[in-house]
Design a protein that fits this description.
This protein has about 220 residues and is α+β, with helices and mostly antiparallel strands. The strands form 2 sheets. The chain has a 7-stranded antiparallel beta sheet, with helices on one face. α4 packs across α5. It is globular. The two termini are about 25 Å apart.
């Protein structure tokens, strides 16, 4: 089992994301990672093999500033445990994805994306998702529509947290076959695999139903 945490707020989110990962450690994992947006186009990312504590140590050395971010703990399914295979995954320095679940048609998508010019840096099934989102963003779609179009290509189960580095005011979440919850705050909103991850920051939750897509800003959840 893997863990997802995401936040969009009017304050720095890295500590919120890290605590959320700590609270999801019971799910089992072999690596951890975090990505934040320090400003439009200013994506920061850290990924580590091993425990969340190792990620914390790296954050002490290389802080990740930003008021929008996602984090993840991974249990290897496609690809060995490694920092390169850890989430979040990034496409062309712009689109960022964390993913729970399994993309069953990832090999077919990977072949098509390589033929289209994408370079893969991991062995995971997740990387096809972030490249699919990037293609739709590059085609001129806003993040919500880009995610909607990208997920139509996917077969399997997935819970996703998605960010566009050029859109610092939006976090998109999707649930299909893997649980995902939205946490409602004041001037800030969150996503997670489990309410336990978000209890320090909110007591109000929306449990996404099968097929739901949610758009989170600092002021609202749609």
């Amino acid at each position: 089992m893997c863990g997802i945490v995401g936040a969009i707020a009017q304050r720095e989110v890295s500590a919120i994301l890290l605590e959320g990962l700590r609270r999801l450690e019971y799910r089992g994992y072999d690596s951890a990672g975090m990505a934040t947006l320090a400003g439009p186009g200013d994506l920061r990312r850290l990924r580590t093999l091993g425990k969340v504590e190792r990620l914390r140590e790296q954050l002490d050395i290389t802080p990740l500033p930003g008021k929008l971010g996602v984090a993840h703990t991974r249990w290897a399914t496609h690809g060995a445990p490694s920092a390169n295979n850890a989430h979040p995954h990034v496409s062309h320095g712009r689109c960022i994805v964390v993913h729970n679940g399994i993309i069953e048609n990832h090999e077919t998508l990977r072949r098509a994306q390589i033929a289209a010019g994408h370079a893969f840096t991991s062995e995971t099934d997740t990387e096809v998702v972030v490249h699919a989102v990037y293609d739709e963003v590059l085609a001129g779609h806003g993040l919500v529509e880009a995610v909607r179009r990208a997920t139509r290509q996917l077969e399997g189960a997935y819970a996703l947290g998605v960010i566009d580095a050029q859109d610092p005011d939006r976090l998109v979440a999707v649930r299909f076959g893997s649980p995902l919850v939205v946490g409602i705050g004041f001037g800030e909103n969150f996503i997670a695999s489990d309410v336990a991850a978000l209890l320090p920051v909110t007591q109000r939750f929306i449990f996404l139903e099968e097929g739901d897509l949610a758009e989170l800003t600092r002021e609202a959840v749609t």
